[in-house]
Design brief:
The chain is built from three helices and five strands. By secondary structure, it is an alpha+beta fold. A five-stranded mixed beta sheet has the order 2-1-5-3-4. A hairpin with a 5-residue loop joins strand 1 and strand 2. The longest helix has 13 residues.
């Protein structure tokens, strides 16, 4: 019986990898799956790309069977998203302790704004 796995690419394409038997599918590593895609569909491996299934990142040296991937299921070939940035350099870190910042805020709320004599409401 022929088996297949679908791979949704970064660009949104749905590609198919066909194998001869279910055992071959279960014993195929994630790395071998990607190599077959690269050769059959003439794709290029994007640096830092990864493969996920059911929200989990798949390790390249693990088999599809170890993740429970079966006939006609879809894995996703994605790019990782990194949040944040390098942050402030140590010499520019001007954090204020919480109590000090709360005291500043309280002082700001106590002062009344200066009246603007040029603006009158009738």
């Amino acid at each position: 019986m022929s088996c297949r796995v679908f791979v949704r690419t970064i660009a949104g394409q749905l590609l198919t990898v066909n194998v001869e038997t279910e055992d071959e599918l279960m014993n195929m590593t994630v790395e071998k799956l990607l190599k077959r895609l690269l050769t059959e569909d003439k794709l290029s491996l994007v640096p830092l790309s990864r493969v996920s299934y059911n929200g989990k990142k798949l390790q390249f040296d693990h088999t599809l069977g170890s993740y429970g991937i079966k006939h006609e299921e879809t894995v996703y070939w994605i790019l990782p998203l990194y949040a944040g940035g390098p942050g402030l350099p140590p010499d520019e870190d001007k954090r204020v302790p919480r109590t000090q910042s709360m005291e500043k805020l309280a002082l700001m709320q106590q002062t009344e704004p200066e009246s603007n004599k040029s603006c009158r409401i009738l």
